[in-house]
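TA notes, week 10

Several of you asked for a full example with nothing omitted. So below is the full record: structure tokens for the whole chain, then the designed sequence directly under it. When grading your own attempts, check the secondary structure regions first.
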């Protein structure tokens, strides 16, 4: 009986997991872009799920005729999309691979950026991930959350200006300043912890 149970477990482990649907992939990628993901990218399983989501989302956007991530277009237009920046940082940190971006294969500009990010995986950034992955992951989430909040703030500010609501405008800016100071303090704390761990491992 034990042999049969062990065989069943082995077969289940080898069986392919169900394909991720586009909606689930989009949700996972966008949550990471907001700094709200609960995936542990310091684990093999967490990275596996995130990479699958990135591949599926990139393929879905490509099928719709949309380049994603559109890093080349973002640079030309001077815009910064938090989700695309989050995915690029994950690439630099080694949590996804250039091959995961199916929609970028036909764009020379984006492929160059992806190749550059891939080369950065051999830089000191990767050493930080190796010795202080939880802190690096936390920092990435804080930065992503800050970028997302700034994007949201821009929309809220424009609406307040359009309505001529000066009180709302002041309240928004004060809240943004408080949040910025809190996040910057957290980033500085994490940076110090990462630097200490890297120095100890050297």
């Amino acid at each position: 009986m034990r042999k049969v149970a062990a065989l069943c477990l082995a077969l289940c482990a080898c069986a392919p997991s169900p394909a991720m649907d586009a909606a689930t992939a989009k949700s996972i990628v966008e949550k990471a872009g907001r700094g709200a993901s609960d995936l542990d990218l310091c684990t093999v399983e967490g990275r596996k799920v995130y990479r699958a989501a990135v591949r599926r989302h990139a393929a879905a956007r490509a099928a719709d005729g949309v380049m994603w991530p559109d890093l080349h277009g973002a640079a030309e237009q001077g815009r910064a999309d938090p989700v695309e920046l989050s995915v690029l940082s994950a690439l630099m940190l080694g949590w996804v691979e250039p091959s995961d971006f199916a929609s970028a294969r036909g764009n020379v500009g984006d492929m160059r950026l992806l190749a550059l990010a891939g080369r950065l995986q051999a830089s000191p950034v990767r050493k930080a991930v190796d010795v202080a992955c939880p802190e690096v992951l936390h920092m990435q989430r804080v930065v992503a959350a800050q970028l997302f909040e700034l994007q949201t703030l821009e929309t809220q500010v424009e609406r307040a200006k359009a309505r001529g609501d000066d009180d709302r405008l002041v309240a928004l800016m004060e809240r943004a300043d408080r949040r910025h100071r809190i996040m910057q303090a957290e980033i500085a704390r994490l940076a110090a912890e990462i630097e200490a761990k890297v120095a100890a491992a050297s």
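The two ends are 51 Å apart (CA to CA). Use that as a sanity check on your answer.
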